[in-house]
């Protein structure tokens, strides 16, 4: 998860390694949920979440949480977005999301041993 300010400067990166998950859809849903939970816990009232997982974003927009793999996570995301009107989510293709990918990759490379979660501020 990478948080950018309105000038698109990175203000926080948070990384999580899911050591036992191999399903990309599950990982994308968990990361989006983690980003929403983190923003709520840190007092954000307005946030645009961007994700390159088009299937996940389409399901959220349609409020279609029916998917055995990620149903509970999607339901939590949809409910969080509905109760926090300043939060929106949109699909951004990987080409347009390179800053987030580069920062996330760099953040993960900072740790040589497997870790579950870390934060760092830039």
UniProtKB/TrEMBL annotation:
Matching Pfam families: RVT_3
Single GO molecular function: RNA-DNA hybrid ribonuclease activity
Domain of life: Eukaryota
RNase H type-1 domain sequence ranges: 2-107
InterPro entries: RNase_H-like_EbsB-rel, RNaseH_domain, RNaseH_sf
Protein name: RNase H type-1 domain-containing protein
Source organism (scientific name): Linum trigynum
Taxonomic classification: Eukaryota, Viridiplantae, Streptophyta, Embryophyta, Tracheophyta
